[in-house]
Amino acid sequence: MKKRIYLTLSDGSIWPGNGDIEAPMEGEVVFTTASCGYPQTLTDPSYNGQIIVFAFPPIGIYGVDKENLEGRRVWARAALMTCLDETEEGRFESLSCWMADNGRPLVSDIDTRQLILKIRECGSMMGRIDVEPHLPEIKELPHTLVAEVSCSEREICGEGELTVALMDYGVKENIVRGMVRRGCRVIRFPHNTAAAEVLASGADGILLSNGPGDPAVLDFEAGEIAKMLGAKPILGVCLGNQLLARACGAKTKKLPFGHRGANQPVVECATGRGLLTSQNHQYAVDGDTLAGTDLEVAYSHLGDGTVEGLRHRRFDALSVQFHPEASPGPEDASYIFDNFVIRMQAAKGR
């Protein structure tokens, strides 16, 4: 049965709603503008540590299709929405039952419009969901977010003539599925695997995955990427883009409220081609720190000029801040995975 629940932000503001909760939940309060794909959003490991506010008014319309999730559990700390539509159809479980099974609060009847406007004005901030409407102190997110979502041992998916070494910083399952569909054998490595072990696997290319949290705390991971530069073609996605930048000596920065949604406009710098992309990131590469790194901007955000992709001038390494696999979102950028396969084939032919 629904009861009164409160979101308290770190600035002391209180936002009442309705739902059910087993225990208080804390996280960074962020919003997404995607109108569909809420099960994929909630299971995306990149949302580990975050409380998601859905901007689209009704959520839960089509239940939960468990066969197409992006993670093996709900990683978001909680979900907030204007209204919850409990439609349940056939094999699709209701959103509220599914969230309850995962022990995650689902809060509806909250004024998400004003809450999102506040985040846009003040920036993302920490929050707590509880049955009590006050909390004087809310802890910051831990530095272990990537370790929590990464696989703990090597895993292999698919078969094919090409082998991809996937560095799992919190990879979305549709990235794995996408590479398997393209005829690749995918070896999934834990986030803290040494470069020597990755290169000894016989992989034809290295894919740096998405993941949660601040890339500045992942010095080991960035250091191992630096050791792999030039050995094999590299493709970085989201956090992988930021780690490639840091591996080459650039820095990253935290955006005020980040980019989350399925309609983020991006331009490919070399061609002027415009793309609608799926995005989920709070941090971005600081373009002012690229001098002397051998990196150039390959993609740029048409809204705020944020660096949305990088290309290495000397080595075969490309990265994007957005998600070519979408899920949810448009598939404008799926050609980036196709090109990665072509790059691996060319390198293997040499």
Question: Which key phrases capture this entry?
Answer:
350 residues, alpha/beta, Glucose Oxidase, domain 1, Rossmann fold, 2 domains, ten-stranded mixed beta sheet, seven-stranded mixed β-barrel
Q: What does the model show?
A:
- Composed of two chains; the small (or glutamine) chain promotes the hydrolysis of glutamine to ammonia, which is used by the large (or ammonia) chain to synthesize carbamoyl phosphate. Tetramer of heterodimers (alpha,beta)4.
- The chain has helices spanning 38-43, 95-101, 112-122, 145-149, 173-181, 195-199, 219-228, 239-247, 335-349, and strands spanning 3-9, 14-20, 25-32, 50-54, 58-59, 78-80, 83-84, 106-108, 125-130, 155-157, 162-168, 184-190, 205-208, 234-237, 252-268, 273-285, 295-301, 307-312, 317-320.
- With 350 residues, the protein is an alpha/beta fold.
- The protein has two domains: 3-130, Carbamoyl-phosphate synthase small subunit, N-terminal domain (Glucose Oxidase, domain 1, 3-Layer(bba) Sandwich), CATH 3.50.30.20; 145-349, Rossmann fold, CATH 3.40.50.
- It has a ten-stranded mixed beta sheet with strand order 10-12-11-13-14-19-18-17-15-16, with helices on both faces. A seven-stranded mixed barrel has the order 1-2-8-6-4-3-9.
- The protein is globular, with a radius of gyration of 20 Å.
- The N and C termini lie far apart (64 Å).
